[in-house]
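Hello again, I could really use a second opinion on something today. I've been puzzling over a protein and I'd love to understand its fold better. I'm sending you its amino acid sequence along with the backbone structure tokens. It would help a lot if you went through both lines with me. I've dropped the whole record in just underneath, so have a look.
***
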Amino acid sequence: MSTKVTIVLQDAPYGNEKVWNALRLSQAFITTGVGVRIFLYGDSIFSAKKGQTTPTGYYNIGEMMADLIKKGSEVRACLTCSKARGIAQEDFIDGAVIGNTMDLANWIKEGGQVMVF
């Protein structure tokens, strides 16, 4: 994959369609050969939490995130945001890791498009 896109999520995984749409777009990017990096801020960290029970009428965001990771996407959850919400590394799905804002800064420095949802 020659091109990378960094997607920054900020909203909770359920309650509106921002995270769902960002993950659908991520799938489309991968299909076209574009690499995807996802950084989770605020309540979006719950998008990568293990054991999600999907509300009626919604897709399982955790399963979508796990599929993206299997396809080579990098997923990082903000350390400060995770600590504030009592979420530890072992609470995340396989492949999602706790990172920090410097990770995001480095991704952006490396180039590619940046999208914020």
The first helix runs from residue 18 to 31. Helices lie at 18-31, 61-70, 79-84, 101-110. The chain has one domain: 3-116. The chain has four helices and five strands.
